[in-house]
Amino acid sequence: MTDKIEQDTVASVHYTGTFPDGEVFDSSEGREPLTYLVGHGQMIPGFEQEMLGAAVGEKRDFTLTPDRAYGDRDEGAVQQIPRDQFPEEMEIEEGMMLGAQSHQGPIQFTIVSIEGDSVTVDFNHQMAGKTLKFSVEVISVRKASSEELADGMVRGPNGNEQ
134 with 50: CB under 8 angstroms? Predict the structure, then answer.
């Protein structure tokens, strides 16, 4: 039994993520704790770095600048796409988040604007360029199983991915 978050452990944490102005963008409050396999890219890099060495019951507060979270915004990722690239029957509107398949796998994008036959889309992560604050409490830590390490995924008690 391990009691500190380290490489190849499975950590369960309760967390609240806020913007610097205090607005909450995500929280596990009222839900099951977030469980992740440490050191396998399931969390943003800064979150994992800040939580390394934390013990069960410990609370940590930290701020991540964009370079340690979702990166800076790339204005080159804002592009114009002809309306006919979307299914004709699909209703699209400003602010919608959509997913698509690319040669690099699934990607998400946001509809910025629609002008006539042209749709402006933003392929930046919605949190790109943002500074994020986290308050995190460690609920439990355990060694990852050999199956979890092989797959890079946390397995629940029934063997399913979590």
Answer: yes
